Prior knowledge:
Blueprint: H1 2-24, H2 37-43, E1 55-58, E2 63-65, E3 85-91, H3 94-103, E4 116-118, E5 123-126, E6 139-141, E7 151-163, E8 174-184, E9 189-191, E10 199-201, E11 211-216, E12 225-231, H4 234-244, E13 248-250, E14 256-260, E15 266-269, E16 280-284, E17 295-302, E18 314-319, E19 336-338, E20 362-363, E21 371-391, E22 399-405, E23 412-418, E24 432-452, E25 457-458, E26 460-464
Parallel strand pairs: 1-8, 10-18, 13-17
Antiparallel strand pairs: 1-2, 3-5, 3-7, 4-6, 7-8, 9-11, 11-16, 12-15, 12-17, 14-16, 17-18, 19-21, 20-25, 21-24, 21-26, 22-23, 22-24
Helix pairs in contact: 1-2
Amino acid sequence: MRDNLKLMRFSLLFAIAACSLCLSCKKDEVTSTDPYDEIKRELSAYTVIPLNGTDTLLGALDIVLESKLKGAFFPLLKEPHATDLEITAKIGDAELLKAYNVLYHAMMPDIPEGMFKISGNGKFIIKAGEMQSTDSITIEMDSIAVIPEEGIHNYIVPVVMECRSDHTLLKSKLMYIQYRVSVSNKAVWLYGTENIEMHVALFDQDLNTNFFVKALMSPEISKPLQVDVNESSEEDIDAYNKEHGTDYQPFPTGSYNVFYANKRPVIFIQADTSRSKDDIRFKLTNLSLFDPYKDYMIYYKIAKEKMGDPSKNAVFFTKPRQQVDPAREIDRKNWTVTGKTRDKSATYAVTNVIDGNRETMWVSNVDATPTKTLTLDMGHTHKVGSFLTVIKSGFEYLQMEIYSSPNGIDWNLATVYNSLPASQRASATNFETRSIAFEQPVEARYFQFRVSGGGFGISELYASE
């Protein structure tokens, strides 16, 4: 920054010297052909182009944090005047920016339309007998909708001044301000539990236990921040299911209670802190309204989409079913499964997924193979509406492709399942399950479960009609 400022000082002094040299020549001796002579004369009133101390734009939050150092200058008169004079200032046009780049051999970018404005009302008073105004001219951001991508950006902003009574009284009608802005897309997270989880699985023993939704922003900012939050609707859950290949039901009305610390769905993060002190509290109040053979979901999401980190802008509460509906369960006695196993260890044998013991599990190979696969042969053709997998934290999958085949050779993509991260609340008695639902029942004998990446694990695999 210091080097840039030195360069500007040198460039401006050079322009002033050139201007002075030109003005010292007699008109009949030298005829100037420089189209920027007038601009040089205007700038000769000042010695330094002012520079701000780098403002910070938090694009995701629509917040501008202004630096304490302002790029500022004062309107000047050629000589004191007998009465007060009103000076108006406005942002100059693109031609003046072009002139700056030519004069100083610079490559300053174009200014997006409407990005800047003169601070205050753009009017300044030079009092009678004074040579400069009482208040300095500064600029500020007027529209943050036109800000470019993350990073530090430099702009040169031309400022044009006029004196309402007589513009010839001004020592200069033009000045430039260099404006620096650091653009950051910081965003707010929502989280539940002290482990900063976005997915909280609830079980029967959680009846009347308070869980919370809080907001987090790191690092903190110097202004208080209001985070409005929406509760999911039935339509939201339907949309989630279609997008993720799931079959969640909305939490039944009357099955839960929500307490808002601020009497409405809003969370506040105080200035210079990273976490909210208030919260939204959620608890189960009536278990009898839940069907034990269905999965349930409710979530709380940042209302202003731009404000939240897309991957952490909601807290999901789920109540996963622990078993398959016996009336719809497909018998596993003729099933066989194949798949590569981690370290070829019997501890993680592939047959564990159908051994009826949720304490054992199969863990896929974790080598460089791009896709890990579990293949199921159901013995004969079945019409399958959904699969239920029992998983353990640390071995979960976030995305899975499910293929079907009539013969185990020709495979067709049946659905793509996208999952929430595993909840850390699952235990030896409360298992986290994932239901993979087909939009329409799939009739096939063979199914493949494919996961790309480092590997995954399944404790038990069930199917329902």
